[in-house]
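Hey, I'm writing a tutorial for new members on how sequence and structure tokens pair up, and I'd like a real worked example in the thread rather than a made-up one. If someone can provide the structure for the chain below, I'll link this post from the tutorial.
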Amino acid sequence: MTIRNLDRAFSPRSVALIGASQRPGSLGALVLSNIVSGGYGGAIFPINPKYRDLSGRACFARVADLPEVPDLCVIATPAQTVPALVEEIGQFGCRAVVVITAGVGSEGQLRQRMLEAAGRHGVRIIGPNTIGLLAPLVGLNASFTHIPARAGSLALLSQSGAIVSSIIDWAESEQIGFSQIISLGDMADVDVGDCLNMLATDPKTSAILMYLESIPNARKFMSAARAAVRLKPVIAIRPGRHEQAARAAQTHTGALAGADAVVDAAMRRAGIIRVNDLEDLFSAAEITARFKPLERGRVAIVTNGGGAGVLAVDHLIDRGCELAELSPQTLASLDAVLPPNWSHANPVDIIGDAPPERYLAAMRLVADDPGVDVVLAMNCPTALASPIAAANALADVVQDGLINNKPVLATWLGQFAATEARRVLNTAGIASVDTPAKAADAVSILTRWRRLTSRLQRVPSAHEAIHVDRPAAGAALAIAATAGRSMLTEPEAKSALAAYGIAVPRTLTVTSIDAVEAAAAELLVGSSRVAVKMLSASLTHKSDLGGVVLDIETADAARAAAQAIQDRLAAKGLASALDGFAVQQMIIRPMAQELLIGVTTDPVFGPVLMFGAGGVSVEVVRDTTMELLPVDDVLADDMISRTRISALLAGYRNRPAADRGAIVLALKAVSQLLIDFPQIVAIDINPLLADADGVIALDARIEIDPQRLAIAPPNPALSIRPYPGEWTTQLALGASSFDLRPIRPVDAALYPRFLERVTAEDLRLRFLVPTSELSPETLIRLTQLDYDRDIAFVALSRPEGDLAGVVRYAADPDGKHAEFGLLVRSDLQGIGLGTGLLRHLIDYARARGIIELTGGMLRENERMAAVCRELGFEMTSLPGDAARVQARLVLRAG
């Protein structure tokens, strides 16, 4: 379950508190006092057999005695009572519970018994071990916070009750309000993904703030976060950036926390703005609420103190922002209104005696410059000019935080006079920050927000297919699995990589020193040098053990190298671990860069792809980046760009640029290998040589889990559901035939020609309103899907490859109910294409566990209705809408 019955908790019409009390200092008394005094207008039912009335309200002995079924029950009783209370609550009909009680753990199977009772009745549980729930818009404070939260438009999700209390305290001093505050606690049932699903479509929530220590369901979290980010900013703190803090977080939550680099990759992939402290959390919320994201962050600084402006420049550059280059026209205009000794550059130092009029003139001129995206007004206190007067003047010209439609940030330094000036700025709706560093942070958030959301909407320029020989790769993995090994030998690993199109040197494996000589002689016929490497099922770091000898030019030298390897292992007491030798072509590519492609399995987010600088010093250089699988062309190219070595790959001096497309294909190949083989838990390709001629893997390791051999692809451990390519098929209709496959982002390019051959009438019938074209943003939404929730199948005419028809569904977050839509090219209607597409969608929906497919259509759309009736849909009228009907198909019992 994801959002089922959660509406009862987020906006309850009535609340029951089990464990209500009047004993001073008790949990039950604190929570009851907060509920009663918070202005909540719904019914409040205290429950405790010790009392007949509490806080002027009738008190009931048990849930079954209540006069009505409450929307929300809050439990504040000892841990051992919780399972039976959840059972009683469920039997009475309540479907949402907040368990404030701590200690509902594995001892006595309390947690399991609680969840079993909840499952029997469809009860949703927030907690246990939570500070409670606050819904300020309805005046509900069902928590034991020390003060209530004021109403507003921010939603807060936190695993720490102490953080909730601290944030409410801080927000009150800043007059910041909330739409929802959920203390998630131990997340036995309702987790962060569930709450994101609820808040994404909440019209009263403008931004979502999160404090996360762990993520229990990565795939649900990623789907929910990506959906939410498309609608509103999502900003998160995730502690544990350093190992010691990560250990503390595990102890605190009792949950497994993933490595911080992986969490960072996950948040970047989801489009979440990550910040590092609580102050930054609210600054980010304020900035994203005030302004739109910025394509670029070219900042013009207007200041009465040159030093402060220079300091701001340093902070901006540190955060990847840009200092605007003022045009000659702007500089000339500034010369006309500023003293001769002004800075004549950006930052625009208007001198310490600047009166308000000088500020305004400079602000207007720099804001008019087309090369400026953001204006930063700074003020340093002097005896020559009033900071408050300058603030009042700025307030007169800035409208809704903008000047000439450009964001204005203000930094008034100091304490005494600046405090009143900041009040003036805040009252006027001007984003005021305390320091140049915070101003730089604000600009950085706006540009980072754009980059993050753009990543969710970028369309690959092409979809270059990778070579895949799945049986060959499977055979290499099966050899190790059959032998009971978790580590493939180097030749086996390279065989698997070669099956997915990654070039590897020719290698011969032998079991004796005599055979090494013969193998070397054979390879030296076509190569100037060979390498001899040890083979071992149990020893993997060959170089560390002296198990690799390079640059061998003769067969005799190869034999001697093999003997030396054997002797070194024997000296270390490891002779029995030697299984043989690999004799390999030496690849001589002096202009190549050494790269690393790897896969690690994170305990939370599953397999994660790594790319960066390779070679023996990879741990020292630490020039790597991570990305959640799967990756496409755009994401793979992004990985390359995020590394320092990307500058070298672009070419320099006499070294030509490396074949970037070949690196992208290698990253995609490893991604696909993990999709197809769930038993793979780790891959290490180091080094991968890259130059203008392409890439080649010189060394490789692959680790598997033989226990996962029976798991069918696609890999269920991936936190993002991969492209369901297995649902590709062909459809023959008389003389015409079509390829049916799931939609890809690149298919956005097929739509313009497709829509040219769809009549305006057919578009009206499909989208229920008159329309003649679809915007680029709409095409992106139609082609970039979260395959865990949504699907679309395209029919491509053969052999032309033109888009002929599209069928799709969008499922609810529970994955049980889905709404479908169908559009077939007007000149191809009547041949059965729509029926074939919809039948394929029904088969897919049934396989994915969808309970019910529904689709709305205009009553006049008889052709669509006939297709639905043919496939078993029931047609019903929509209440209150005579123009529309609904098609409904039940796929299985709910």
